[in-house]
Structures are given as structure tokens and as C-alpha cells.
Amino acid sequence: MIVLGIETSCDETSVSIVEKEKKNNFGKVLSERTLSQISKHKKFGGVVPELASREHSKNLDFIVKETLKSSKISLKKIDAFAATTGPGLLGALLVGTNYAKALAISSKKPFLSVNHLQGHVLVSRMKKSIPFPFICLLVSGGHCQILLAQAYNKFKILGETLDDAVGEVYDKVSKTMGYGYPGGPIIEHLAKKSNGKYNFDLPKPLLRNKTLDLSFSGLKTAVRRIIEKGITKNQQYDLAKEFQNAITECLIKKVDSSFKLLNKKLKICNFVLSGGVASNEYIRKSFELLCKKNQISFFAPDKKLCVDNATMIAWAGLEIMKYRKISSKINTPPKPRWRLDSL
Ligand code: KG4
Ligand code: ZN
């Protein structure tokens, strides 16, 4: 079974061809091409939706052809065409969704509608056997959710951010410090230079609150106020570190509570960290440690598969085919807002 996946929900035009291997049911990437639009959006300090759609429509056809060529697979060998149909920017989603539908119709093969967040979660199962149910912390530029993954299409949201997503806060802090987008890798790099001399006593909203929900806008504002007062380079490094520690402490506390809460009812053996922020080394290490303490196995996709990519969409397509075996409706519209608990 071979699926071609297309991801165009935001600022990456990505195409991937993934084959499910007979011997172990794992996924093998035959070819992947990703074109980042970061340089196009940089001067605007964030993603410009109209520009994103235009770039996708300019490049997608070429990228599909490139991916097919380097996979050495002919179009006829593709068993299904998957695309991210939400959540994301409407215009951007339309480009990838319509392209995949056109390929499916002309090849008389199934079209598979994939939720972008479903892709982020399921890609962890591409090379490792992680049985359902498992707990997943999904942390990206648009989302921050603690999930109970019960099946390929069944997710319960145990807690989520009430305001900003973690990646979004990283991006905003980086911008306030005068650096670029995406802010996550920049802040992570600055934090590594810290010698911990200065303390800023940052707020950790909802840390002691009993729910599993999170909140980061107060932390973002506190960091912005400190920067606006004027800080030295060394203070900037320390602030980056303290900011990263505060975010991590909030995430760890809530995921730890979710382990304790769920283990009263069902035995949770596996935890998955996913989404763009999951490529952060400090956050990965902190969760590895937490899992060890709780005797839970820790999984995180390769860093390349944490940030947006079409491999996760093609793989989710393969998981859908395994269980459902039918095409999505060809008139499935793109859904800019599409919650994981409504699949
Ligand atoms: O999953 P993703 O590629 O796109 C969305 O679905 O949103 O996540 C992008 C987000 C950006 O906000 C980016 O700053 C953040 O992931 N990110 C990181 C790191 N690498 C990317 N955040 C913290 N540390 C990183 N190393
Ligand atoms: Zn994403």
C-alpha cells in the first residue's frame, strides 16, 4: 500500500510518498519534498495567509512531480491520495485539498481527508509500535493539547491552552527580542548560552489549578514587559532560559497530573510528545525524565517529523486505509477549524 500525502495547511508546501511495509506494517518514506515559505513571510513577522496560498499554488505541482520522480514510483502505483483538509488557513488548505482530489479522480483512486493534528499524533507510530490508548502532548504553533489517543480517529482532549499555543509564544518572544520566525529554535539556542546569573521570577499561569488546562498569555506579557524595559545580551540569554523552564514546568505538571488521573481508571503505558515544539531538546529531555519516573515509555518522532511535513499526512492516510478502507467524500470541504475530538 502506497499513499501520496500533501500538506499545505500553513507555510510549508510538502509532498511525501510513504509505503506500508508488509513485513512489519511500519511506514517507509519513498520520497519527501518540503518547500518552506519562511523567507517569504519573514519581513512581515508572521505568516500572511494570502501569500501562503499563492506560494502553494505556484509550487505544489512542481513539488508533486519532483517527489514522484525521486521516489521512482509512477503515478499508477499510488493507492490513495491524502491531503490535510484542516485545521489551517482556508486558502492554503484549498490548494492541497483540491490538488489531491484531482489526482484521486483522474487516477480513480481514493481521496483521504486528513486532520493535520491527527497527522502530528499518528506519525509517532510510523516506525514504532505504540498501541492505543496512549497520552499525547501536542505542542505546535497553533495548538497545545493533552490528548488521550484511543484509536486512529478517536481522541479525547483532556486539557488545552485557554489562550496562546506554546509555539506561538516562542515566536512572539523571539519577535519582541528582535529575532526572526520561527522563534522556537532561536529561543532554544539563546537559552543554551545562559549562565543563570539573573532571575526574573516569571509567572506560571494555572500551574496550581486543578484542571489540565494551560495558559501562556500572562507569561508572554511578563516576558515582553521585561524586554521593553531594556536588557543586556546576557540577561536575554537568562530570560530565554527562564522562559523555556517556565513553559516546560507548566507542561510537565499538567501531563504528570494526566498520568495520575488516568491511571486510576486505565493503565497508561505510553506517552507521545508531538508537534513542532517537540523538536526542542530541553522539552524532550524533561518529558523523557518524567516518563521514566512514572514508568511510562516515552516516544517522540524524529525532529524532522515533529515540524510540519507531508510524511505525517501520508502515514495518517495509511492508518485510515487500514481501518476504514473507503475513500473520503470527494466534496469534503477544507475545515479551517477542525477539532481532533470531532473526527
Ligand atoms: O507543528 P509546526 O511545524 O506547525 C504548526 O502546526 O503550528 O510547529 C511550528 C511551531 C512554531 O511556533 C515554532 O516556533 C515551534 O513550532 N518550534 C519550536 C522549536 N522548533 C519549532 N519551539 C520550541 N523549540 C524548538 N526547537
Ligand atoms: Zn503542525
Helix content: 40-55%
CATH superfamily of the largest domain: ATPase, nucleotide binding domain
Structural class: alpha/beta
Q: How many strand segments?
A: 10
Order of helices and strands: EEEHHEHEHEEEHHHHEHEHH
CATH architectural label of the largest domain: 2-Layer Sandwich
Distance between the termini: 23 Å
Task: Name the features.
Nucleotidyltransferase, domain 5; 10 strands; 343 residues; 2 domains; alpha/beta; binds zinc ion; 5-stranded mixed β-sheet; binds 5'-O-[(R)-(carboxyoxy)(hydroxy)phosphoryl]adenosine
Give a verbal description of the structure.
The chain is of the alpha/beta class. It has two domains: 2-125 and 305-342, ATPase, nucleotide binding domain (Nucleotidyltransferase, domain 5); 133-300, Nucleotidyltransferase, domain 5. Helix content is 43%, strand content 19%. It has eleven helices and ten strands. The strands form two sheets. Strands 3-2-1-4-5 form a five-stranded mixed β-sheet, with helices on both faces. Helix 3 links the parallel strand 4 and strand 5. The longest helix has 31 residues, at 233-263. The model has no long low-confidence stretch (mean pLDDT 96).
